[in-house]
Amino acid sequence: MLHHTYFAGTAALGIFLISLGVMIGLTLRIRRLNAEKDRAVALAQEQQEQQEQLARDVHDLVGHWLWLASIKSELAYRHAEGDARLRRDLSEILQAVQHAAHAARNVSQAYQQLSLQGETTRAEALLSSFGAYCSVRMDVTDLPDDVSATLGTVVRETLTNMLRHSRVTRCAIELTGHGGRLRLTVANDGASRREPASTGSGLGNLGHRVGKLGGTVRVTADGDGWFILIAELPLNFSE
């Protein structure tokens, strides 16, 4: 009788241990599957973010150059009387289109080459070709590459919108640092006195870019024809 009871107890213990082993195995398997699922979700999200970033890059780079090409086309027609001027303007159109094609092929590399200094210099030259005056003041220098590229994109996109939507004659670009913040201000006198400042997809893209560095973008029109864009970033950047 005792032998039978001992055998039954041992069998029950064995079944319990086997069941426990199976449960532990299933639990570990479920955890591995959940971890794999989490990694797959994270990878999918990363790929989606990369695709969205690519779309923003294409908008900022290719869109800019194509709009510049159309603007230069209008300028060429205005001065069609002189063949030399026409040839020069058409040459600039060709260069702009070539830049667009190049940016489409090398969008990531092209974005890395953007800089605030380069874009402000180009803005001065381009606005001058339209008979507009552009002043630039930089109180902060030696910016990190990613910050310089982001603020350069802000200037580039704002310049594109400026020439596309307004009749600018004066523009002011200023970079200042105060209160632990960097502030980039781009203002022009070509805003409509009747319509509010535009907040289209281009400005939304800028907000996303600047937001990735912990900053903000806001726009306003003062009622006297001035459109003002302000981008602010933390002044002390962490690696």
UniProtKB/TrEMBL annotation:
GO terms, molecular function: phosphorelay sensor kinase activity; protein dimerization activity
Keyword Transferase applies: yes
Domain annotation Signal transduction histidine kinase subgroup 3 dimerisation and phosphoacceptor: ranges: 53-112
Pfam family, one: HisKA_3
Transmembrane segments: 6-28
Any single Gene Ontology cellular-component annotation: membrane
Keywords: Coiled coil, Kinase, Membrane, Transferase, Transmembrane, Transmembrane helix, Two-component regulatory system
InterPro entries noted in UniProt: HATPase_C_sf, Sensor_HK_TwoCompSys, Sig_transdc_His_kin_sub3_dim/P
Coiled-coil intervals: 30-57
Domain of life of the organism encoding this protein: Bacteria
Protein name: Two-component system, NarL family, sensor histidine kinase DesK
Organism this protein belongs to: Streptosporangium subroseum
